[in-house]
Amino acid sequence: MSDIKYQLLKIKIAESGVSIKFSADTDKKYKRLKGIFASLPDTGNALFGSTLELRVADVEVFPEEFEIKMLSCGQNVSPNERFYTQLDEEAEGSRIEGRYIDGGNAAAYPYTAKLYLLLQEKV
Amino acid sequence: MSKERIKLRVISIEVSEENQIVPIDFKLANDIDSCKGIFVTVKEYLDTPNIHIPQIGELSLMFNAKTKHPIHLTTEYSKNPFHKKEFLDLDCSIEPNANITGFYTDYGKTKNRENLFLPYTLVIYMACNLPTVI
Predict the structure, then answer these.
(1) Largest Cα span, chain B
(2) If you write DSSP's letter for every residue of A19-71 in order, what string do you get?
(3) Measured between CB atoms, does B45 come within 8 Å of chain A?
(4) Scanning every residue of chain B, which has its alpha carbon at the shortest distance from the alpha carbon of A64?
(5) Contact, B107 vs B56, CB < 8 A?
(6) Cβ–Cβ contact B113 with A under 8 A
(7) Number of CB pairs < 8 Å for A and B?
(8) Three-state SS for B80?
(9) How many domains, chain A?
(10) pTM for this structure?
(11) Do A44 and B6 touch (CB under 8 A)?
């Protein structure tokens, strides 16, 4: 049986157009990173033009210019189906390094972007 | 023993004029052996009166020195970004050093309420297969 954990990363966006570098470690008790879902607080405009560059264990997962809207979807999609699952990366405490660039279209600032990591295979 | 992994390649195309034709010519990394899928989107929020425009342009891509023509499709724009992003399946082998060429033609549909054309950036995501030795 594949144990599952959803790990939450929060990125605070202070103002329009900022570029935020962030880093975190995946939970050491899970072997694989199998999916990512992004959630933003407003009704959709903040998704336009915002990008997320991401590396896991020094391996490129999302290149420059990768749009955050590729990792997001709405209530028309069931929660279990919302994750971007085109990845299978080593977890177990792997370093996650990212850069979020705001597209300048959010309804209000500051806001907090949330990344949910889908971790599987408990150690 | 080898294992496959997906490497994403992002190609941005600036469309600044109505009915513009943009030539496409780029090269993928040498270590990529195939393209597994493609997804096309518009980067900006466009202040169009319609929430959804089913056809804003036409994309044509040829692989391996124009010997394969797997992509010729119309592109859409939606103000609602909340649908699930599934790549369009494409299982196309890529030869080393082969260019990917083609064109994008704008249909002149992205207009505001005053009927003025709204420029946009078309973003092409290619899910490429990267064989890795383990």
Answers:
(1) 60
(2) EEEEEEE--TTEEEEEEEEEE-SSSSGGGTT-EEEEEETTEEEE-TT-BGGGG
(3) yes
(4) B10
(5) yes
(6) no
(7) 63
(8) coil
(9) 1
(10) 0.88
(11) no
Who among B5, B8, B83 is closest to A73 (CB)? Answer: B83
Cα B96 to Cα B131: distance, rounded to the nearest angstrom = 13
Its ipTM equals 0.81
The CATH number of residue A52's host domain is 2.60.120
pLDDT along chain A (123 residues), means of 10: 88 95 96 93 80 95 93 85 90 96 91 94 89
- Which chain A residue has the Cα nearest residue B85? A70
Question: Using one digit for the tens of pLDDT, what is the confidence trace for A81-115?
Answer: 899 998 899 999 999 999 999 999 888 899 999 99
Interface test with B, best of A86, A88, A105 (most B CBs within 10 A): A86
pLDDT tens digits along B92-104: 998 887 789 999 9
Q: Could you tell me which of A112, A81, A92 has the C-alpha nearest to residue A27? A: A92
Subunit contact A66:B8, Cβ cutoff 8 A: yes
Domains and CATH numbers, chain B: 2-133 (2.60.120)
Chain B nearest CA to A49, separation (Å): 5
Range of A72's domain? 4-122
Query: How many CB atoms neighbour CB B83 within 10 A?
Result: 13
Mutation target among A36, A40, A65, A105 for the B interface, most CBs of B within 10 A: A65
- Tokens 């202070």 sit at which residue? A14
